[in-house]
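Incident log, structure service

09:12 report received: a user says their structure output differs between two submissions of the same chain.
09:20 pulled the input from the user's history:
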Amino acid sequence: MANISILFGTVEGQTARIAEYLAYVIREHGHEARTVDLQTSGDALPDECDGVIVGASVHMGKHEGFVTDFVRTNRAALERLPSALFSVSLAAHGDEANAEDYVENFEQETGWRPAHVGLFGGALPYTQYGFLKRHMMKKIVSSKGSPDTDMSRDYVYTEWDGVRRFAEDFLAEQFPAPL
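09:34 re-ran on a clean worker, output below:
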């Protein structure tokens, strides 16, 4: 049984929901899993973990700065331990090339090149945005040709089956079940 830490950064909460679901799937497979919000936990990698999954959301074309800082600080440990990255963005829903560019930029900024990467669609939580952000996001989404411009509701683009596959693939590669 492995002890896996899922460390994440989130703005509106979708990355946290994905991290919690990853932990659920990992526990279903008989391992321990713990989620940690990097915005409040500091820069130290949790003690006694056998593997690490780092998650960050993309806003204005970049992952959260505090996640980038955490990865830079802990790069040696992330390279030594079984580790993976998941990136959450609106681009991952329909513009995969752009989502891949975000990850490539993150890798260049941090120097960390995880062997296992997941790209997940995020959410468009209009009801959580203030007036200006709500209208700015509507304009951006509309300019991309999306019909999701009803600001009285939220849209979730996360494909939960893909999140499950990401977790199961990571476990199969890094912590295979004994025969």
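09:41 both user submissions now match this output. Likely a transient worker issue. Closing.
09:42 reviewer note: The CA atoms of residues 38 and 70 lie 8 Å apart. The two ends are 14 Å apart (CA to CA).
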